[in-house]
Design brief:
There is one protein chain. By secondary structure, the chain is of the alpha/beta class. The protein has 3 domains: 3-237, Aldolase class I (TIM Barrel, Alpha-Beta Barrel); 244-352 and 508-525, Rossmann fold; 355-488, Rossmann fold (3-Layer(aba) Sandwich). The protein contains 19 helices and 20 strands. It has helices at 13-26, 43-57, 80-92, 102-105, 108-119, 140-150, 168-177, 192-200, 223-229, 254-264, 280-291, 308-317, 324-329, 354-366, 385-396, 408-418, 475-482, 490-506, 512-525, and strands spanning 3-8, 30-34, 63-66, 97-101, 125-132, 155-161, 183-187, 205-209, 221-222, 240-246, 269-275, 298-303, 334-338, 347-351, 377-381, 400-405, 421-424, 435-438, 463-466, 486-488. The strands form 3 sheets. The protein has a 9-stranded parallel β-sheet. A 6-stranded parallel β-sheet has the order 17-16-15-18-19-20, sandwiched between helices. The chain has a 5-stranded mixed β-sheet with strand order 11-10-12-13-14, sandwiched between helices. Helix 3 packs parallel to helix 5, helix 7 (168-177) packs parallel to helix 8 (192-200) and helix 18 packs across helix 19. The longest helix is centred in the last third of the chain and has 17 residues, at 490-506. Bound molecules: NADP nicotinamide-adenine-dinucleotide phosphate (NAP).
Length: 527
């Protein structure tokens, strides 16, 4: 079992009571009383706190008592003798675990006092912890062994800051390679996934906060996120992993969508936000690290800014399969890992679900088949990544395309590649197309009063498609609707590409209505 522990970091008893109540209501499976946060710390205060927690818990919730040294992230500069007295009295009051710093435990006097306190407790156990707030430990396995050499029945707790997601693999390797109780994870945004994967790899405890205000370490998730978004209860050693590789990744709606759809189908799969900072080198290192650890059980990825081209290059280098249009677009937004025993046998295949998602949104709204796109006159506004995917798809289907862009050279280059026309944005006043597609970010939240095409340029009989999906009803779409034009929103495209990814990931069809509901709820909660 991996306990989901909530640190109680309160200044006083009243605040502690409230936090304990909130933690238990949220579903904490263990409480860590961070007594170093308490003002006027005393042995009696901690004893009272434990008695109250035990009385109010109403169910058996294990308690860790910690009185952290300031050198290891403690809040107040309490002297070691007081901190040890607090831990000793905590054991007497019924704490299940005390947490003490391994560095301080090497001091003979400290060690003797802690050993005596433990010997007087029937059930109390010792967590020996080491923290590195700056970077990885030089040798985490040696540190783990050193702890057990000094106190063989301790539970080692090794926590370090991941400055890059690739730093997490050292923690995963330790969790995977050595059995026995241990607490291992990484701090910081780059280490966030290690707090979740700790459960799959059978870590003894992972920590969550009640809310963002009470978080005691960088990158800590809330209990609600663990239990709701990441379906903590369902994670086990067989859980298959997926994720979105991006930088930044915090705003991505994909974890909410895919996890809800996995839940909807009762699938033992989990989708994570994977913050991969840097360029090709860091991207390659991340994927190589994943491929060489089959036991992590990663099976597929969504790829977004800035890694779509890096993903394409990666698949090329490893001679994986690349969907022909993804090659032509120059971007892969979905990667699948095809199983094999060795790293070399494990293949990565690359796909692009963006263009098909847009084309599906268009054909279903216009009630035509893909052959209906042949000869259709289309004005594409924008010449960036999304425009490129849509132009590639439409050009493949035989549409007659004109690209309008602020930077005309970019439009010219894209037009030359796909054999279409181009023009500066000013030419939109003589717009004459059956379908207009906005592929710029104009009109996107928070600039919701902007539109890429003034309403007087919109002509009757035109269909207007805005790829922007936040807000769903952009000013461009509102003005088109007022003129009784057919409209297609960016959310339809977004959902289509998520549906296509889900199909690639699982071989099954997902629930588009559920996806749309989740995205709409997320977007309105962020306003
Ligand atoms: P991108 O590669 O950065 O391209 C941005 C495009 O917008 C460029 O053509 C740029 O023109 C133009 N642009 C930006 N600000 C402008 C301004 N103030 N005035 C005129 N033109 C401006 O971005 P992308 O990846 O193509 O994404 C574009 C938009 O597509 C996003 O903002 C998002 O809303 C939408 N999107 C939708 C989906 C979906 O599934 N519905 C998925 C991804 C993205 P220059 O070349 O002159 O810089």
């Amino acid at each position: 079992m991996t306990y989901l522990a909530v640190p109680i970091a309160a200044d006083n008893l009243d605040q502690a009571r409230q936090q304990v109540k909130a933690a238990l209501a949220a579903g904490a499976e263990m409480l860590e009383l961070r007594t170093d946060y308490l003002e006027n710390l005393s042995v009696d205060l901690v004893r009272n706190l434990i008695a109250e927690v035990k009385a109010s818990a109403g169910r058996q919730v294990p308690i860790i008592v910690t009185c952290r040294d300031q050198n290891q992230g403690g809040v107040c500069p309490h002297p070691a003798p007081l901190r040890i007295s607090v831990l000793a009295s905590a054991l007497k009051a019924g704490a299940d675990f005390i947490d003490f710093e391994f560095d301080n435990f090497r001091n003979v006097e400290n060690q003797e006092r802690i050993r005596v306190a433990l010997s007087q407790s029937l059930t109390g156990r010792l967590i020996l912890s080491a923290h590195n707030f700056k970077t990885r430990f030089a040798n985490i396995t040696k540190l783990y062994r050193d702890i057990l050499a000094v106190y063989p029945v301790a539970i080692p707790k090794l926590v370090y800051t991941a400055n890059h997601i690739n730093d997490c693999f050292a923690a995963f390797d330790l969790l995977h390679s050595i059995s026995g109780e241990k607490i291992v994870f990484c701090m910081g945004q780059a280490g966030l996934i290690s707090r979740i994967i700790a459960k799959k790899l059978n870590g003894f405890v992972t920590f969550a906060s009640i809310d963002e205000q009470t978080a005691t370490a960088p990158g800590q998730l809330t209990v609600e996120e663990f239990k709701g978004l990441y379906r903590y209860e369902h994670i086990d050693s067989d859980t298959e992993l997926f994720g979105v590789i991006a930088d930044p990744v915090g705003h991505s709606l994909s974890p909410a969508i895919h996890n809800a759809c996995f839940a909807d189908k009762s699938m033992n799969r989990l989708y994570l936000p994977l913050l991969v900072q840097g360029g090709q080198r860091e991207f390659d290192l991340f994927l190589n690290s994943v491929l060489s650890r089959k036991w992590l059980n990663f099976s597929g990825f969504s790829i977004t800014i800035p890694h779509k081209r890096n993903a394409l290059n990666y698949v090329r280098q490893r001679h994986g399969l690349i969907e022909p249009l993804a090659e032509k677009i120059g971007a892969v937004n979905t990667l699948l890992i095809k199983s094999g025993v060795t790293t070399d046998e494990r293949r990565t295949n690359g796909y692009n679900t963006d263009y098909a998602a847009a084309l599906d949104a268009i054909t279903s709204r216009l009630k035509i088949g893909s052959d209906g796109l042949n000869g259709l006159s289309v004005a594409v506004v924008g010449a960036g990544g999304v425009a490129r995917a849509i132009v590639a798809g439409l050009s493949d289907a035989g549409a007659k395309i004109k690209i309008y862009n602020r930077t005309v050279e970019r439009a010219e280059k894209l037009a030359a590649e796909f054999d279409c026309d181009f023009a500066p944005l000013d030419d939109l006043q003589s717009l004459d197309a059956k379908l207009l597609i906005n592929c710029t970010s104009i009109g996107m939240h928070p600039n919701v009063d902007a539109t890429p095409v003034p309403k007087e340029y919109l002509k009757r009989g035109m269909t207007v498609f805005d790829t922007v999906y936040n807000p769903v009803q952009t000013l461009l779409l509102k003005q088109a609707k007022k003129k009784r034009m057919k409209t297609i929103d960016g959310l339809s495209m977004f959902i289509n590409q998520a549906l296509a990814q889900f199909k690639l990931f699982t071989g099954q069809t997902s629930n588009g209505v559920l996806m749309r509901k989740i995205v709409s709820a997320s977007l309105s909660s962020k306003k």
